[in-house]
Amino acid sequence: MTRLTLLTRSGCHLCDIAREQLDDLAVVAGRSGVTFDLEVLDVDGDSELRAEYGDQVPVVLLDGRLHSYFRVEPDRLLRALQDDASAHRAATGQ
């Protein structure tokens, strides 16, 4: 299963919007058989995350790799999730 990480910070209205978009995307993706685990992390709680991504929140990481920052691009992210699911199925013969 694909892992999405949303890097946020307290009081960030763009982060709140990104979280809502990812919640909505989970529903849309689920309808097409694509699922993901979502982890939400506050960059200010981790000095390494803050140093690397603190000026770019909200940040979406797809399986640990940078996918987007400042905003979520739902269509682009859905395509990436679908591609990841297809690759996983091909690799496992499912």
Structural features, described:
With 94 residues, this protein is α+β, with helices and mostly antiparallel strands. The protein has a single domain, classed as 3-Layer(aba) Sandwich (Glutaredoxin), CATH 3.40.30. 48% of the residues lie in helices and 24% in strands. The protein has three helices and four strands; from the N terminus they run E-H-E-H-E-E-H. Strands 2-1-3-4 form a four-stranded mixed sheet. Strand 3 and strand 4 form a beta hairpin. Helix 1 packs across helix 3.
Notable characteristics:
94 residues; alpha+beta; four-stranded mixed β-sheet; 3 helices; 4 strands
- Tell me the β content: 15-25%
For the secondary structure, the number of strands is: 4
Put simply, the count of helices is 3
* CATH class placement: Alpha Beta
How would you briefly describe this protein structure?
With 94 residues, the protein is α+β, with helices and mostly antiparallel strands. The protein is built from 3 helices and 4 strands. It has one domain (2-92): Glutaredoxin, CATH 3.40.30.10.
